[in-house]
């Protein structure tokens, strides 16, 4: 947005000329009042000692005298008014327009200067002119602010309620005499410093020192209302409206054991910026740097005192000692592991008292878990081996044997004694049996031998009877055959006689048909003889051939060898191991019958304890990962739960023990990576890592270790928080860095701070918080104090010497001895002013004086803001312009009760 004098701003085409020569006149609507076009400047005959031209006329054409002074004063009024309008927001709007349109918009002061040029008003020609011009501009701004304040007060009732308007009016009209004096002092000091060769920073320091002088000087031993009023006003200017806030700040610094500067104590941004500037200005940089290093040392000593209070008698506690304490507190004798295991054992012993130790309990869960952890991938048996754990596989096999094998049965309490007694009983029975068997064998042998003899005799008798029966039968047959032969022969002879008789009769009858008559020979031929009959009957030898022989009889009779085979051998009866095989067979059958696939409760409980110990001792190098041990442990726990089901008291005891052990294992998970570190410092770093996100790991460590070890950890941590980085550290690494401390403190989550600091009483935590607040005030305030390097004073001094030498050398080269003298003298004066200001800003007495209670208005600051703005605009220092605008906004908001 264009200002009222924008039409006098430089045209875009002349932007480059304006940038190179800000004082060059730019054509405007009043250019017709100017003389002819100004010829090109020629400074060949001008030196720093020339202030006028011939006949008393200045270079701007004005005759020296009252008229020129009044006209020059008019220029100061115009430029002062423009500066004030710009400070109240006009320049900010112009900058916004430039940003939006891209068209440069000059500042209100520059436009006012161009208006003065257009009006032909004289310009400053000498150093004195420039200083007087500065004072005039500043006084104009002061006068206008007083007038604005009066306008705001117009028509104000004495009983009117306070408002932002009345607050602004009071602020702008506060202490008009002091405002004028402060304006003159600040402007004159800044201008004089500039003319002496001082830069923008030196001008600012001089302006503040000169502006504060009217309020500071009267506080010296004097009496009366005006000195007291001036002193109170100065305090009010520098500390703002909140006197109690300064007292609280001083209290925090006192608790931290640190002396603050003026800017740190008051929180005043202008004063903090001044201190930052003093840190780079010759004459004051060394003072500021020494003060900053002293503060760092005070913080370091306070931190060391706090850390040492935790470990009396142990000096120099460091991360390595803390890490060793952590490892000992967790895994050492009497440490977290030992205590937790003993507590778990005690809880499980309470359970043991409620269950019979030999009670058989199932192990289905743990067997299933082991099988699952080592199961084979279907279709990829070879690959599966790479994901199976040999130790768990061995445990699975062994557990199956213990629950389903004879060795497991024998391991039961009293089982071996029972088996030994059984073996003894069976062996004794075998001995008795052997004696009985020997006697029975002899009787049986006799019986079998007698039976064999009787059988043989019987068979022989039967053979004889058959022989006799056959012989009788043959004789009877012979007799019958003999009788048949005799009867046949008698019949044939009878037939022979009949035929003979018949033939006689026929012959007698003369019959010719005689019947055949058998002859004796034919009859004998037809009838077998005795010899023929005997030949057809069996002979005695043929009869004997049909009967069993002695061998046949012997084959049917049990031989002595066969009898011995049917008997227990004498050698077996006489053997000392007689019956052992039978005994072992009986025992094996008994033990096999005792297999039930379970374990005694005591065995299950001890197995679970051993797995728990494996979890304790597991680390990244273990052959079985802790995750798999936890799966086995969980399965064993479920088997135990199944074992106590139905027993409420035992169930409750088991649940209590399980909860404690689960909590212990969960903590151990967080501690494992810490105690696995081989060196102490590594364990400490691992313990405190992650405190920015939360205190999980730190809490696990601090809860696990004893109080004495916790104190060592906290002590080492506190010392480490403020240890400066390597580039700022000394040989013994004792340099304290507030930046490092505050960064480390801020990087801790609130919960982590509570874990680390709250265990030693509220005062300890408050001390740490107080130090953090103090370091935060220092870091957020004057940056020069935040991270002192010890080189600021030397760098500034080198810069001053080089700059002064260059300026003086140039003046001498041009034959201007006075210029060289002014350069050296100005540098020394600027350094002296800066040194005094730095000592004042770091003086404990001055800080304490500021803290005294006063409720007087803060009018002096108005004039200082005008001076600050003028220095910024004349130096073309954009950073200082922004600082002036910010300071104005803050102070104005504070004066009117508004909030930034």
Low-confidence stretches: 1-54, 216-231, 792-798, 818-823, 853-860
Reading side by side through the largest sheet, how are the strands ordered? Answer: 1-2
Biggest sheet architecture = 2 strands, antiparallel
The average pLDDT is 73
Distance between the termini: 24 Å
Category from helices, strands and their pairing? mainly alpha
**Shape estimate:** rod-shaped
Count helical runs.
41
- Please count the beta strands (DSSP E, at least 2 residues each): 2
| Helix content class | over 70%
Radius of gyration: 66 Å
Strand content range: under 5%
Furnish the topology, listing elements before pairings:
Blueprint: H1 15-20, H2 66-101, H3 108-118, H4 127-153, H5 164-173, H6 176-195, H7 200-216, H8 225-239, H9 243-256, H10 262-266, H11 269-278, H12 285-310, H13 319-331, H14 336-352, E1 360-362, H15 364-373, H16 381-384, H17 390-404, H18 406-410, H19 415-508, H20 520-526, H21 530-536, H22 540-545, H23 550-556, H24 560-566, H25 570-574, H26 580-594, E2 598-600, H27 601-617, H28 626-644, H29 648-675, H30 680-688, H31 696-704, H32 707-721, H33 738-746, H34 750-757, H35 762-780, H36 783-786, H37 792-813, H38 817-841, H39 844-850, H40 860-875, H41 878-895
Antiparallel strand pairs: 1-2
Helix pairs in contact: 2-3, 2-4, 2-40, 4-5, 4-6, 4-40, 6-7, 6-40, 7-8, 7-38, 7-40, 9-35, 12-32, 12-37, 13-30, 13-32, 14-27, 14-29, 15-17, 15-28, 19-20, 19-23, 19-26, 27-28, 28-29, 29-30, 29-31, 33-35, 37-38, 40-41
């Amino acid at each position: 947005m264009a200002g009222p004098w924008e039409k006098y701003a430089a045209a875009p085409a002349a932007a480059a000329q304006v940038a190179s020569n800000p004082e060059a006149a730019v054509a405007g609507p009043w250019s017709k009042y100017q003389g002819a076009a100004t010829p090109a400047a020629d400074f060949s005959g001008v030196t720093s000692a020339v202030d006028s031209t011939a006949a008393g006329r200045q270079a701007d054409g004005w005759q020296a005298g009252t008229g020129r002074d009044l006209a020059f004063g008019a220029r100061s009024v115009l430029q002062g008014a423009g500066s004030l309008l710009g400070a109240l927001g006009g320049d900010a709007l112009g900058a916004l327009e430039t940003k939006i349109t891209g068209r440069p918009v000059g500042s209100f002061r520059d436009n006012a200067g161009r208006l003065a040029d257009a009006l032909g008003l004289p310009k400053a020609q000498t150093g004195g002119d420039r200083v007087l011009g500065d004072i005039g501009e500043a006084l104009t701004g002061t006068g206008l602010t007083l007038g604005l304040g009066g306008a705001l007060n117009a028509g104000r009732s004495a009983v009117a309620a306070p408002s932002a308007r009345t607050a602004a009016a009071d602020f702008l009209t506060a202490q008009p005499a002091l405002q004028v004096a402060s304006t003159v002092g600040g402007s004159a000091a800044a201008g004089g410093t500039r003319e002496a060769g001082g830069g923008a920073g030196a001008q600012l320091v001089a302006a503040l020192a000169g502006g504060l002088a009217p309020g500071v000087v009267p506080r010296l031993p004097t009496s009366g209302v005006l000195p007291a009023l001036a002193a109170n006003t100065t305090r009010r200017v520098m500390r703002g409206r909140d006197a109690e806030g300064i007292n609280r700040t001083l209290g925090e610094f006192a608790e931290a054991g640190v002396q603050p500067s003026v800017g740190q104590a008051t929180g005043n941004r202008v004063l903090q910026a001044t201190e930052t500037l003093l840190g780079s200005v010759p004459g004051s940089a060394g003072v500021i740097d020494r003060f900053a290093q002293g503060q760092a040392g005070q913080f370091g000593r306070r931190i060391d005192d706090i850390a040492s209070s935790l470990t009396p008698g142990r000096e120099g506690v460091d991360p390595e000692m803390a890490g060793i304490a952590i490892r000992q507190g967790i895994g050492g004798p009497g440490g977290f592991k030992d205590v937790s295991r003993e507590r778990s054992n005690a809880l499980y012993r309470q359970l043991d008292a409620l269950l019979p130790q030999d009670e058989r309990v199932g192990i289905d869960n743990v067997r299933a878990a082991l099988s699952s952890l080592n199961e084979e991938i279907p279709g990829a048996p070879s690959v599966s081996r790479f994901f199976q754990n040999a130790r768990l596989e061995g445990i699975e096999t062994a557990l199956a044997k213990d629950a389903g094998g004879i060795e497991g049965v024998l391991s039961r309490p009293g089982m071996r004694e029972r088996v030994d007694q059984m073996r003894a009983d069976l062996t004794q029975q075998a001995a008795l049996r052997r004696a009985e068997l020997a006697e029975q064998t002899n009787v049986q042998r006799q019986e079998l031998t007698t039976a064999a003899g009787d059988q043989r005799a019987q068979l022989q008798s039967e053979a004889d009877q058959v022989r006799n029966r056959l012989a009788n039968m043959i004789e009877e047959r012979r007799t019958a055959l003999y009788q048949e032969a005799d009867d046949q022969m008698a019949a044939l002879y009878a037939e022979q006689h009949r035929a003979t008789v018949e033939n006689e009769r026929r012959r007698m009858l003369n019959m010719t048909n005689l019947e055949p008559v058998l002859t004796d020979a034919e009859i004998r031929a037809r009838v077998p003889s005795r010899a023929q009959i005997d030949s057809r009957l069996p002979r005695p030898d043929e009869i004997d051939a049909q009967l069993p022989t002695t061998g046949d009889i012997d084959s049917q009779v049990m031989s002595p060898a066969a009898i011995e085979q049917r008997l227990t051998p004498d050698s077996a009866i006489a053997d000392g191991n007689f019956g052992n095989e039978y005994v072992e067979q009986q025992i094996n059958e008994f033990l096999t019958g005792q297999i039930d696939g379970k374990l005694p409760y005591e065995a299950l409980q001890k197995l679970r304890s051993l797995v728990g110990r494996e979890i304790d001792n597991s680390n990244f190098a273990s052959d079985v990962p802790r995750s798999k041990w936890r799966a086995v442990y969980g399965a064993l726990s479920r088997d135990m739960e199944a074992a106590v089901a139905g027993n409420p008291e035992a169930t409750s005891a088991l649940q209590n023990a399980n909860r404690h052990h689960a909590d212990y294992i969960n903590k151990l998970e967080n501690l494992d990576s810490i105690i696995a570190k081989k060196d102490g410092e590594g364990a400490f770093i691992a313990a405190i890592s992650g405190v920015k996100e939360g205190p999980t790991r730190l809490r696990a460590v601090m809860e696990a270790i004893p109080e004495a070890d916790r104190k060592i950890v906290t002590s080492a941590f506190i010392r480490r928080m403020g240890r400066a980085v390597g580039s700022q550290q000394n040989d013994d690494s004792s340099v304290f860095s507030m930046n490092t401390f505050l960064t480390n403190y801020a990087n801790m989550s609130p919960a982590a701070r509570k874990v680390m600091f709250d265990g030693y009483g509220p005062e300890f935590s408050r001390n740490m918080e107080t130090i953090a607040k103090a370091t935060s005030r220092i870091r957020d305030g004057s940056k020069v104090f935040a991270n002192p390097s010890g080189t600021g004073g030397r760098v500034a001094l080198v810069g001053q010497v080089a700059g002064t030498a260059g300026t003086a050398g140039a003046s001498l080269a041009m034959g201007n001895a006075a210029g060289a003298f002014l350069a050296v003298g100005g540098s020394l004066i600027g350094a002296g002013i800066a040194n005094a200001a730095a000592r004042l800003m770091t003086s404990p007495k001055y800080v304490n004086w500021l803290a005294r209670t006063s409720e007087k208005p803060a009018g002096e600051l108005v004039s200082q803001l005008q001076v600050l703005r003028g220095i910024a605009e004349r130096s073309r220092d954009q950073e200082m312009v922004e600082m002036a605008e910010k300071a104005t906004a803050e102070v104005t908001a504070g004066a009117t009760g508004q909030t930034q």
